[in-house]
Amino acid sequence: MMEDLSSSMGQRKILFSGSIHYPRSTPEMWPSLIAKAKEGGVDVIQTYVFWNLHEPRPGEYDFSGRNDVVGFVKEIQAQGLYVCLRIGPFIESEWTYGGFPFWLHDVPDIVYRSDNEPFKSLHAKLYLKNSEHDEIRGFICFARRSNNTITGKRDRPGIIIENEYQNVEAAFGDKGPPYVLWAAKMAVELQTGVPWVMCKQADAPDPVINTCNGMRCGETFGGPNSPTKPSLWTENWTSFYQVYGGEPYIRSAEDIAFHVTLFIAKKGSYINYYMFHAPLDEYGLIRQPKWGHLKDLHAAIKSCSTTILEGVQSNFSLGQLQQAYIFEEKGAGCAAFLVNNDQKNNATVEFRNITFELLPKSISILPDCENIIFNTAKVNLEGNEITRTSSQLFDDSDRWEVYTDVIPNFADTNLKSDTLLEHMNTTKDKSDYLWYTFSFQPNSSCTEPVLHVESLAHVASAFVNNKYSGSAHGSKDAKGPFTMEAPIVLNDEMNNISILSTMVGLPDSGAFLERRYAGLTRVEIRCAQQEVYNFTNNYEWGYQVGLSGENLNIYMREHLGNIEWNEVASATDQPLTWFKIEFDAPKGDDPVVLNLRTMGKGEAWVNGQSIGRYWLSFLTSRGQPSQTLYHIPRAFLNTSGNLLVLLEESGGDPLHISVDTVSRTGLQEHASRYHPPQQFYSVQGLLLDNLTV
């Protein structure tokens, strides 16, 4: 008999879950996202809790706006779904610093995620905090108070502590295993009354449940480490994160459905789509055929879930690449999964004296062991392509104003050091940018000078005597520092060399994050006569954290007057230029995007809200930018007079960008056109008829 996650709540269920992270959308979007997930057959919403957002400084808390995790959980509960909280504290999540607040870095003697007393003390304090403001300050309050509107038993099938620790555990030597035991013991002693989970931790201590993350857990998961634990898939990667300069990884609806079904056939009872922004796109629109195909799959599995949960499983071969998984209840139901692992060919098999034709690389679901109601490779919906409609083109130079940022010289800086400082420990995550500056007077023999810079940051840009000289950047796949070789022009007198080091977010994974180094590692001026001036050590440097406009907050309306803005014609091709313009919101309700197709690298703000960093000049192997369209949530917009501010690092052209709207065809037809036989449905268990979106 299959174990399942919900048995402790008095109900036995197979649960389908979708990851929707509250700070990655606006509170105004949450109800629609959750409703569409529910309509698609999802029972659970899974989310991380983001420590760096909620405690940006020690003892200072923020649970407002997009950080309102309490409001997010209440909305999930209001729509009748469960919530699975991933409280970390390390989350990775393709999130800066893995969700840790950077102030942890300055805690004396701390070693993250190890048997280290300073880290364990802060880790425990995070969960054990109990004060009059516990409702918004204590992350674990959701699980600890059992009868209020947040944590009634209906909304909490499980809590996940730590995240894929086994990937890095060996790096910590004898400090790794004790940390796992300590974290599990601390979690269990909180007595939340719900199961605790450690994902990708094969030796998760009892009663904590070990789970699988990946794309093919039906094939790769070794199973629970105890017969009393259920088989859970906490991250079914519906796609994969995309990096600047990288092509997108698109996973088909057929492939996702195949591996979900195989996991259920092998006694799986919980599958979480990470992220659910594959059936739904980044704007919250339904993406077909994924959404509809998975909705049909969920319905088909739920139609025979009682038999799957209560029946005895058996399996046997139907051919060289074919397999049958059967669940039978004594004197009651029978359900079967017929698997064809042949990638290219149909397979004809005989099962219980009935002949079936199985599509290539597919699984057929037979809720009565006789009739196929769903096949993972048979997609009965057409794709709904995204349509972009231009609303406003910002091609009128008279509407734009610009400000060119100040290049700091050595004499202008307050922070001095006789060595190269590490980038992250200097900026403290207050800015992506750190200026390294020095002064230098060459001797007359230095001709054809070249500035040689090696860096472990993401980008380096050089300015000599306030003039741009060149830049270079690394990539995700590159190992070690990247190199910039910039020919420069030097005066005979003193020269000011300013190098802007840029991080595009902080590292999010790996062991010993607190030791990670970023920033310049070597700086030289090399002359044609093989004369080399080395400034790496024992040379006085001046530093400035952040850009001038950034430090003056000129992306916010109330601070626009802190600097003097000029006409755009004089500075469109200058690096480190700020642009501003006002625009009206497009009419209607379609999602709004900023099309930055002619920009280079920088960041965009709308009404003071960042809508993201952009890097269109970093092209993929096909010669295209990784991302061009940037979502502007409707909640950020006023009807008119919206302020758009761009920080352009490398000389992009704002006169050909636009505000557009996006839509998808056929969204009025949410329901799939594929319907299994009615007798195999239990409408009560499908959550399909309760709402329209």
From TrEMBL:
EC id: 3.2.1.23
Primary localisation category: secreted
Occurrences of domain Glycoside hydrolase 35 catalytic (ranges): 10-277
One term of GO molecular function: beta-galactosidase activity
Protein name in the entry: beta-galactosidase
Keyword line: Apoplast, Glycoprotein, Glycosidase, Hydrolase, Secreted, Signal
Recorded family membership: Belongs to the glycosyl hydrolase 35 family.
Gene3D superfamilies reported for this sequence: Galactose-binding domain-like (2.60.120.260), Glycosidases (3.20.20.80)
